[in-house]
Specification:
With about 450 residues, this protein is of the alpha+beta class. The chain is about 30% helix and about 20% strand. The strands form 3 sheets. Strands 1, 2, 3, 4, 5 and 6 form a 6-stranded mixed sheet that branches. Strands 13-12-11-10-14 form a 5-stranded antiparallel sheet, with no helix packed on it. A 3-stranded mixed sheet has the order 7-8-9, with helices on both faces. It is flat. About 10% of the residues are buried.
Length: about 450
């Protein structure tokens, strides 16, 4: 009886920690396919495969070759990852993180499996040439990127790019008739195309989308502006022609450092009591450039700023200038000679012996003289007889003789101008109407 009581107590006792009724399932993280798909698959291999080992797995696509990334469970840190840590990693990457959990590990790949996969990969060049020829014959607006033939031979995947939806049903029928297997046409974008065919980037490393990226997230120009990178598209674009994926790696760090700096065009005060306006900042160095009220510049560390968002101080008072006021000098006006009166004009003509007609012509050559001549034309008044009688004989002789140094106008005989003949245009002959014409040959003048 006592033994039975003791046996009852031991049966009701809880199991020791770490002791399970069922053995824990062995899991392994693998990568497979040209697109680098990730899968967490169960296996029964003992010992667990090391990282980089080739395995033959069965996925939703068929039988294909895969490579081991890491084992799930307890063990060395370089070969194992705890199950809880793996689940946290997947949740941290979001619900869109592409992880496949359907399938299983069939066996570890042997040399024959590797040789078969090598022959299939070499044969993809002939498949690509045949597919491109059919695309050209069918005149389809698509471009073939790569071809993948699975190890089991049950499927051939053709990756292509196109700007719009393409009807490739006839192309699939021709490919299936040629290779007698299932054909899958998969359209990819620019980034996935770089994942398939690109190799190395300008940094000297292999393209991130080929080596470790599983989910390609969008990248905006704002990230390049925040990091103050050059905005030249040729320098910040990757092999795919889009913005480089590495711009997103440090975006969160730059955003955090930028939030610590004061905003531009705000007034701040430093620990030394200097007040200035922010005109520039350096995100990584955490330095701020200020312009002081006296227009001088000062660079301070971000931790030395004690107050932010201050009101703008009043402008400093300018001392009175000791410079004498500039005296405005008036430019002297040139003296103007008085215009001679009409009575004085006769005396001047008598003195120099210039004929009256030439003086009138000189006066008419000036702009004022021209106007006065035009106004007085046709209504000139005759000079009084007393002025004509008082004119001396020298003035009369000066009319007939030329002035000194001037050619005589009477010496040169004036030739009569020949009138220009106007060219006469030939007169157009008026066409006769049928009723005006006379009787033609072979016809009588009077109609019958």
């Amino acid at each position: 009886m006592g033994n039975m009581g003791e046996q009852t107590k031991t049966t009701d006792a809880p199991p020791t920690p770490g002791q399970d009724s069922q053995p824990e399932e062995k899991l392994v993280v693998v990568r497979y396919g040209r697109m680098g798909h990730i899968a967490v698959l169960p296996h029964h291999l003992d010992p667990p495969p090391a990282s980089g080992t080739a395995l033959v797995v069965r996925t939703q696509r068929g039988t294909e070759l895969a490579r081991v990334l890491i084992n799930v469970g307890t063990g060395p840190a370089r070969e194992f990852i705890p199950r809880a840590a793996l689940e946290n990693y997947i949740q941290a990457n979001g619900a869109e993180y592409p992880v496949n959990r359907t399938g299983k590990v069939l066996r570890q790949a042997n040399p024959q499996d590797l040789n078969d996969q090598h022959h299939l990969d070499r044969a993809t060049a002939d498949k690509s040439a045949f597919c491109r020829e059919q695309i050209r014959q069918l005149n389809l607006e698509m471009r073939l990127v790569a071809v993948e033939h699975l190890l089991g031979g049950e499927r051939i995947v053709f990756y292509f790019t196109a700007e719009r939806r393409v009807d490739f049903r006839e192309l699939v029928r021709r490919l299936a008739g040629r290779y007698h297997t299932r054909i899958e046409m998969r359209q990819v974008g620019a980034r996935d195309e770089a994942r398939l065919v690109a190799d190395y980037e300008r940094c000297g490393m292999r393209c991130c989308c080929q080596s470790f990226l599983k989910f390609l997230q969008p990248i905006s120009m704002r990230m390049a502006k925040t990091q103050k990178a050059t905005l030249d598209p040729t320098k910040i674009s990757g092999r795919c022609g889009r913005l480089m994926c590495c711009l997103r790696y440090e975006d969160a760090t730059y955003e955090e450092l930028l939030s610590r700096l004061p905003k531009k065009n705000t007034w701040v005060r430093t620990a030394e009591g200097v007040v200035g306006r922010v005109i520039d900042s350096q995100i990584l160095a955490q330095l701020v450039r200020l312009v002081l009220p006296d227009n001088s510049h000062l660079v301070v560390a971000n931790e030395d700023i004690v107050e932010r968002g201050l009101p703008a101080p009043p402008p400093p008072e300018q001392p009175p200038s000791t410079r004498p006021e500039a005296q405005v000098r008036e430019s002297p006006t040139p003296p103007t000679s008085p215009r001679p009166a009409p009575a004085e004009l006769d005396e001047v003509l008598e003195r120099i012996g210039l004929p009256e007609d030439e003086a009138a012509s000189q006066q008419a050559s000036s702009p004022k003289g021209r106007k006065s001549t035009r106004r007085r034309r046709g209504r000139r008044k005759k000079k009084p007889a007393s002025a004509q009688a008082a004119r001396p004989a020298q003035a009369a002789e000066a009319r007939n003789q030329p002035a000194a140094g001037r050619p005589s106008k009477q010496a040169e005989p004036q030739q009569p101008k020949q009138a220009k003949r106007r060219k006469r245009r030939p007169r157009r002959r008026k066409k006769k109407r049928p009723q005006d014409r006379g009787p033609q040959a072979g016809q009588s003048g009077n109609p019958q």
